[in-house]
Specification:
The complex is a heterodimer of chains A (about 100) and B (about 375). Chain A has about 100 residues and is an alpha+beta fold. Chain A has one domain: Ubiquitin-like (UB roll), CATH 3.10.20. Chain A has helices at about 10-15, 30-40, 80-85, and strands at about 1-5, 20, 60-65, 65-70, 90-95. A 5-stranded mixed β-sheet of chain A has the order 2-1-5-3-4, with helices on one face. With about 375 residues, chain B is an all-beta fold. Chain B has one helix at about 140-145; strands spanning about 5-10, 15-20, 25-30, 35-45, 50-55, 60-65, 75, 90, 95-100, 105-110, 120-125, 125-130, 140, 160-165, 175-180, 180-185, 195, 215-220, 230-235, 235-240, 250, 260-265, 270-275, 290-295, 305, 325, 335, 340-345, 355, 360-370. In chain B, the strands form 8 sheets. A 4-stranded antiparallel β-sheet of chain B has the order 3-2-1-30, with no helix packed on it. The longest helix of chain B is centred in the middle third of the chain and has 4 residues, at about 140-145. Chain B starts with a strand and ends with a strand. The chains are: A alpha+beta (about 100), B mainly beta (about 375).
Chain lengths: ~100, ~375
């Protein structure tokens, strides 16, 4: 099982706790983890990556094993520790970002 | 006795304010969707318990929420807004051309005849429609495909489609307004659109009287007279008596004709309200005095309404979607400020009192008049 940590607003949206566990086919990648996450929680579609381009939203980052994986290929295999469930795959909001002009 | 429900969208969530017809004592519920920007919340005129809310942040993008019980509970519905075909280009702030890119929903306008049909005005400017209660959204591409798109440009808030008015007497006729493109009208339910900006004059575009490019901040209509439209433009307050075919200035004796909101009394089609703001570079009330101006003559002659509003040291703004009226007798008028106050008048503007004082900055105010 792969453990995914979500930021608080997405936990509220999906009505889950801080961590969700997902069954993901090997080799597990960012794409397959996010596919599994969105399949289980359809309300998260469009909130982490763009509906059409599937690109990561610019104010979100992906961390794991104390590394920033945000700029890795979405099809690159995730670290073994994430695949085994020893370490979580972390979706986190950038410290920047926020309000528009309204 | 009827009840009133005020739907307030703010920078940090939505709030629902309720009162009986006296409008003296208010219950406040919320925040709903704490931490998210709520650009707009609006109820269906067909089923008042059906509410739609536009929820967004720059982190997580756009969500649409729907309620079937007047805002007690909500469920997320469709949030996929994909432009039809290959997006064209529009002007950027610097005059270069940029492709259309969806950013957020500014305004949700439920249908006058079907609770499951709702229109969405979005940034970058386009209009979408859902006929399944918000589950899926389809663009009405004739607007963006009108051909003038390369001359549209963002206002300070972005290139937003912020107003959708449906003509209650002519099915298929819809008016929309875009900053900064202007007003457009369809007479065939959104298939084709025409710009209706003759008479507008704007110094921020090379040809001040061009057919598009005007920064229209808001338009309003009285449902009994849908051929008459009122407009608060970037500068100038305007009216049209021929469904937008031509416009005349009615700023008259206003202390400044810059502002964002404009609305019409529920029972008097020639009574209109604006909140003058000092200038395009100083979005604050003139002289630190928050004043609503009312014209009972359809424009030109305006009176300041100040009773109950701060008349010193007040430097809030009132954004374009942040004024609404109820349909009680006497007409209630409501507006919200960027300082987090929502003011209400139960006597058509003669006097005001805050319902709440310390909400996050208010982005939108809508009012529902409900049977008791």
């Amino acid at each position: 099982m792969i453990r995914v940590l979500l930021p608080a607003p997405l936990r509220t949206l999906a009505q889950v706790g801080s961590e969700v566990a997902l069954e993901v086919k090997v080799p597990a990648t960012q794409r397959s983890v996010l596919d599994a996450l969105e399949a289980r929680y359809p309300m998260l579609r469009g909130t982490i990556r763009d509906h059409v381009t599937q690109q990561r939203r610019p104010f979100l980052r992906f961390f794991a094993c104390e590394e920033d994986l945000s700029h890795e290929s979405p099809d690159a295999p995730l670290p073994d520790a994430v695949v085994s469930g020893a370490e979580p795959f972390v979706v986190i909001g950038a410290i920047a970002g926020g309000l528009g002009e309204g | 006795m009827s009840n009133v429900r005020v739907l307030v969208g703010t920078r940090k969530g939505a709030f629902i304010l309720t009162s009986d017809g006296k409008r003296e004592h208010w219950d406040v519920s919320g925040p709903h969707f704490i931490g998210w920007e709520l650009y707009h919340v609006k109820g269906s005129p067909v089923d008042p318990n059906r509410l739609y809310a536009a929820q967004s942040t720059s982190w997580f993008g756009q969500m649409i929420q729907r309620s079937n019980d007047g805002g007690k509970t909500w469920e997320p519905v469709g949030n996929k807004f994909t432009y039809d075909g290959v997006p064209g280009t529009h002007q950027h702030y610097d005059g270069t051309l940029r492709p259309w890119e969806f950013k957020r929903v500014w305004h949700l306008e439920p249908s006058l005849t079907d609770a499951d049909t709702v229109y969405a005005g979005v940034e970058d400017a386009a209009i979408f429609r859902s006929t399944d209660a918000g589950q899926t959204w389809q663009e009405l591409p004739g607007l963006r495909g009108h051909g003038s798109g390369p001359r549209w440009a963002p206002g300070a808030g972005g290139m937003c489609l912020h107003t959708v008015l449906q003509d209650p007497k002519e099915p298929g006729r819809i008016f929309i307004a875009i900053s900064a493109a202007g007003v457009f009208r369809t007479d065939d339910a959104g298939k084709t659109w025409q710009p209706i900006n003759r008479g507008l004059r704007s110094q921020h575009i090379p040809d001040p009287e061009a057919d598009v490019g005007h920064c229209v901040h808001r338009i309003a209509m009285h449902p009994s007279r849908p051929h008459t439209l009122f407009m608060q433009k970037h500068w100038d307050v305007m009216r049209s008596d021929n469904a937008g075919d031509s416009w005349q200035e009615i700023s008259g004796n206003l202390p400044t004709d810059f502002g964002f909101v404009i609305d019409v009394h529920a029972h008097e089609p020639e009574t209109i309200y604006v909140v003058p703001i000092k200038s395009d570079s100083e979005h604050v009330p003139p002289d630190g005095k928050l004043r609503v101006y009312r014209s009972r003559t359809g424009g030109h002659e305006w009176e300041a309404l100040t009773k109950g509003l701060p008349q010193k040291d007040c430097y809030v703004n009132v954004l374009r979607d942040a004024m609404a009226v109820d349909s009680l007798d006497s007409c209630g008028v409501y507006f919200g400020t960027t300082g987090g106050q929502v003011y209400a008048s139960a006597n058509a503007g003669d006097s005001w009192a805050p319902i709440v004082r310390d909400l996050p900055g208010v982005l939108s105010v809508e009012v529902q008049t409900l049977p008791g």
